[in-house]
Amino acid sequence: MLLEELQRWLPTILVLVGFVLAGFILRIVLDLGMTRVIRKSKTKIDDIIVNAIRTPVLIIFLIFGLELAFETAPSRPSVLVDILPLLFHTLVVLAVAISAVKAINGLLKHYGTMRPALKSVVPTLQKVVRFIIAIVTLLLILDGLGVNVTAAAAALGIAGIAIAFALQGTLSEFFAGLYIMADRPIRVGDYVRLETGQEGYVADIGWRSIKIRELPNNIIVIPNSKVASSIVTNYYLPETEMACLVQVGVSYDSDLEKVERVTIDVAKKVLKKVSGGVPDFEPFIRYHTFSDFSINFTVILRVKEYVDKYLVTHEFVKELHKRYKEEGIEIPFPIRTVYLRRKRA
């Protein structure tokens, strides 16, 4: 009796054992074959995809083995006949979904590493991908369970359109935030000035707004769309070092060669002494205007970042004023000559 029962179940047992052994062999073949392919390839994309599908492929293979073994079983409980195919279908869909999420997230992370401009956007894109795959997976599982998903899909579409209209402003700010994070015209910590006049350090870049901390230490909150469509001056790009221009005027009686020599000497000392100045920079001047009462020129200094220009300019003006007095160089002030015409008697 036992022997006869064993003979009845033998095909089922052989199918199940065969698929388990074949699954392990398939795993070994995939590991060896894909390893060779990965070594020959110069990109990490195939490595990411192989790591994502390796385990799910084995799981799907074993699920098909279980399904075939169940089909060859000599006796099957009626409850399992109805439940197991649905369970197998659900497990396959979940395995494929997990594999897809792992592969796409890995690719997004890889491209975020290769392109630093996209790095800040990657976490959000990964969440969006997981959400979309979760919705599709749910619909596929419900379809396998016999639920009519056409109406559900249509309802989701209509609901999505309604939500998009209701959140039009929010979505506009969201996509503007994605653009700013991907293109990176500004970054957290940069000192920027908008065309509307606001300026300060970028304190935070969110999905709806950007926070800018002004020098008086107050925060300005600006919608992302305003920043994305505005002309922005970033004083930290392409680097933080920048020129510091100081306007000076001397009298027409001045020796311009001496003025240039004295001014450059003062500028060098200030850049070496004052914190924020670039000590190895060679300052220079450029005469540019014969004004009403002075010859005007620009002194070109260099500072380490935008706000350093205030202290450097402050110290330079003090030192230059002192040195001009010692050298006898006159800094003129506006003079107006008035002629009075006497009326003849």
Secondary structure elements and their pairing?
Layout: H1 2-40, H2 45-72, H3 78-114, H4 122-144, H5 149-166, H6 168-183, E1 191-194, E2 199-205, E3 209-213, E4 219-223, H7 224-228, E5 232-234, E6 242-250, H8 256-273, E7 284-290, E8 295-303, H9 308-327
Antiparallel strand pairs: 1-2, 1-5, 2-3, 3-4, 6-8, 7-8
Helix pairs in contact: 1-2, 2-3, 3-4, 8-9
* Biggest pleated-sheet summary: 5 strands, antiparallel
The count of DSSP E runs of length 2 or more, i.e. the number of strands, is 8
The DSSP helix count reads 9
Shape by Cα distribution: elongated
Q: How confident overall, as mean pLDDT?
A: 79
Count of folded domains? 3
Distance between the termini: 154 Å
Instruction: Provide the spatial order of strands within the biggest beta sheet.
Output: 4-3-2-1-5
Instruction: Give the % helix.
Output: 55-70%
Class of secondary structure makeup: alpha+beta
pLDDT below 50 for ≥5 consecutive residues: which ranges? Answer: none
N-to-C series of helices and strands:
HHHHHHEEEEHEEHEEH
Strand % is: 5-15%
Query: From the alpha-carbon coordinates, what is the Rg to the nearest angstrom?
Result: 37 Å
Description:
- The protein is an alpha+beta fold and 345 residues long.
- The chain folds into three domains: 8-166; 183-234, SH3 type barrels (Roll); 242-327, 2-Layer Sandwich (Alpha-Beta Plaits).
- The protein is built from nine helices and eight strands.
- The strands form two sheets. Strands 4-3-2-1-5 form a five-stranded antiparallel β-sheet. Strands 6-8-7 form a three-stranded antiparallel β-sheet.
- Helix 2 packs antiparallel against helix 3 (78-114), helix 3 (78-114) packs antiparallel against helix 4 (122-144) and helix 8 crosses helix 9 (308-327).
- The longest helix has 39 residues, at 2-40.
- The model has no long low-confidence stretch (mean pLDDT 79).
